[in-house]
Amino acid sequence: MSMETGTAKGRCELCGRSGVSLTEHHLTPREQGGTFKGTALLCPPCHRQIHALYTNADLVQRELTTLDALRADEAIAAFIRYIRKQPPSTMPKLRKSVRVRNKH
Fold this sequence. Notes:
Blueprint: E1 8-10, E2 20-26, E3 39-42, H1 44-53, H2 56-61, H3 67-72, H4 74-83, H5 98-103
Antiparallel strand pairs: 1-2, 2-3
Helix pairs in contact: 1-4
């Protein structure tokens, strides 16, 4: 069972929804030195939303490397308010932020 592919079921540590697939999110991105630092189990929509809004460098520069910091970020908080109302099977369409689109 791989945490990377979202095959485990449980409770998302960011939005708190239960019965969702889980993926492993490195709180400090691996490419920013987070290989052996903390991780969190997130549902795919929350995980995808974080990376749609911010580059890995942004996450470190904005100090969004803890669950509390992510929850306090207004853009992510707005998404959490939305996704908490959705059933576990919901996989919303996401649009990358201009910052992330321009990075690639």
